[in-house]
């Protein structure tokens, strides 16, 4: 094998698309998927490549420094693509410590292991940290997040991601650890856990349950199809400059309420329901505390320097996403049974 890469969080939403892309595209790389399989991790996401010769799954927790160190000794990776994280803002509001443990301490453990194993020869090594646009805080009506925008995280989730970004850059600056970092906007697509807006609303529309829009619904997000994020990660991993940061976005801003209305319209068409049937399920609920008003990415740098651009329009991506959920009801039923019901009760019924 030409290279060994550890991809953390590879059983999650974005991670599974990154693992699939790398396993299928780089037959001469050994891809080690390191994941703790929390509620958000699901090996069903990778059924199609689980027996590939260049793929290995390892169940491990990044908060366990000893385990991480031994895995580095065992696999001797040339690169790490780090996606493992607690990723849901609402959960960070009810349990911030879990986010500090995984996102901050877990990242520190990976950095320490990488440094320990690579410090005698950094040649050909790369620590790729996958981060979010939420570290920049919230925008007003105008403007965009640039790579130079100062950090101003507002939720325990984004604060923990910001801390991990700072640690990665500090290890680069202090010890010379080779790294690259990206901050991406909201992803959507197949395998998205139905605690996040789009898959939660698709699931509720299917089950004719209320669609809980937070506050006045006039919050804005910039949506990117998950496979385009995976493509961007591939480009940055292979072509991005050392110690550089790239913003990744969809050039695709939507106010939540407008997005929800579009989703309702498309779902009515797909399900053969009368126009307006799903929109009647919209229900305005208590706002998310500290809710960031608007995110919008300026992705000029990755576009002009590395030639990346989204390949899928929002209309195409949303249609593919809806089709995937309608064709994968077993996946949806499996992840929404058990623990999910308790989470849903606590989040939406008090
Ligand atoms: P996800 O919640 O779907 O998946 C997270 C994965 O990490 C799961 O497989 C889970 O089992 C694993 N994991 C969690 N804690 C772990 C631990 N302690 N040790 C090992 N594995 C652990 O998340 P996602 O939406 O796929 O996000 C992946 C990464 O991308 C995160 O770092 C997130 O901050 C970042 N990101 C997400 C988005 C988005 O819109 N979803 C946008 C930008 C950046
Ligand atoms: O911007 C990137 C970030 O996008 C990632 O770093 C996070 O991991 C990811 O979860 C996502 O964060 P958001 O908080 O923007 O995503 P979420 O799907 O939770 O919410 C999107 C918008 O929809 C937000 O304004 C809150 C609103 N919302 C969400 C839910 C779950 C609702 O109105 N009702 C809901 O039930």
Number of strands: 12
What is the CATH superfamily of the domain at 3-191 and 223-252 and 295-312 and 342-348? NAD(P)-binding Rossmann-like Domain
Terminal residue distance: 53 Å
Given helix and strand content, the structural type is alpha/beta
Percent helix, as a range, is: 40-55%
**CATH class type of the domain at 3-191 and 223-252 and 295-312 and 342-348:** Alpha Beta
The CATH topology of the domain at 3-191 and 223-252 and 295-312 and 342-348 comes to Rossmann fold
Bound molecules: nicotinamide-adenine-dinucleotide, 2'deoxy-thymidine-5'-diphospho-alpha-D-glucose
Arithmetic mean pLDDT: 97
Number of helix segments?
12
Radius of gyration: 20 Å
Main sheet?
7 strands, parallel
Short description:
The chain has 350 residues and is of the alpha/beta class.
Q: Mind explaining what this structure looks like?
A:
The mean pLDDT is 97. This protein has helices spanning 13-25, 65-75, 89-94, 96-118, 156-175, 197-206, 226-239, 256-271, 300-306, 314-327, 329-335, 339-348, and strands spanning 3-8, 29-35, 55-59, 79-82, 126-132, 179-184, 186-188, 211-214, 220-225, 245-248, 253-255, 282-285. 43% of the residues lie in helices and 17% in strands. Helix 5 (156-175) links the parallel strand 5 (126-132) and strand 6 (179-184). The strands form three sheets. It has a seven-stranded parallel β-sheet with strand order 3-2-1-4-5-6-10, sandwiched between helices. The protein is α/β, with parallel strands linked by helices and 350 residues long. The protein has a domain at 3-191 and 223-252 and 295-312 and 342-348: NAD(P)-binding Rossmann-like Domain (Rossmann fold), CATH 3.40.50. Helix 4 packs parallel to helix 5 (156-175). The chain is globular and about 65 Å long. Bound molecules: nicotinamide-adenine-dinucleotide and 2'deoxy-thymidine-5'-diphospho-alpha-D-glucose. Residues 8-9, 11-15, 35-38, 40-41, 61-63, 83-87, 102, 106, 130, 132, 161, 184, 186-187, 193 line the site of nicotinamide-adenine-dinucleotide.
């Amino acid at each position: 094998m030409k290279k060994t890469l550890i991809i953390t969080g590879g059983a999650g939403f974005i991670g599974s698309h990154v693992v699939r892309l790398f396993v299928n595209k780089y037959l001469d790389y050994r891809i080690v998927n390191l994941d703790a399989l929390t509620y958000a991790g699901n090996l069903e996401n990778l059924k199609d490549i689980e027996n590939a010769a260049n793929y290995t799954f390892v169940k491990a927790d990044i908060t366990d420094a000893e385990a991480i160190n031994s895995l580095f000794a065992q696999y001797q990776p040339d690169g790490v693509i780090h996606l493992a994280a607690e990723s849901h803002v609402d959960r960070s509001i009810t349990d911030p410590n879990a986010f500090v443990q995984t996102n901050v301490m877990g990242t520190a453990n990976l950095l320490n292991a990488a440094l320990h194993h690579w410090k005698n020869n950094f040649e050909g090594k790369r620590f790729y940290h996958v981060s979010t646009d939420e570290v920049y805080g919230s925008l007003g009506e105008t403007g965009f997040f640039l790579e130079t925008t100062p950090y101003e995280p507002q939720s325990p989730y984004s604060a923990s991601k910001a801390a991990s970004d700072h640690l990665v850059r500090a290890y680069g600056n202090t010890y010379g650890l080779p790294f690259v970092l990206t901050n991406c906007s909201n992803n959507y697509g197949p395998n998205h856990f139905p605690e996040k807006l789009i898959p939660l609303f698709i699931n509720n529309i299917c089950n004719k349950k209320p669609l809980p829009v937070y506050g006045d619904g006039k919050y804005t997000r910039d949506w990117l199809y998950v496979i385009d994020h995976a493509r961007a990660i591939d480009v940055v991993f292979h072509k991005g400059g050392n110690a550089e940061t790239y913003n990744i976005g969809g050039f695709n801003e939507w106010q939540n309420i407008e997005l929800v209305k579009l989703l309702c319209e498309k779902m009515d068409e797909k399900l053969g329901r009368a126009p307006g049937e799903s929109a009647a399920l919209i229900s305005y609920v208590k706002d998310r505390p500290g809710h960031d008003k608007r995110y919008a990415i300026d992705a000029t740098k990755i576009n002009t320097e590395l030639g990346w651009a989204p390949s899928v329009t929002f209309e195409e991506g949303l249609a593919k996403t809806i089709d995937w959920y309608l064709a994968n009801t077993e996946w949806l039923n499996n992840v929404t049974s058990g623990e999910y019901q308790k989470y849903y009760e606590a989040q939406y019924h008090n």
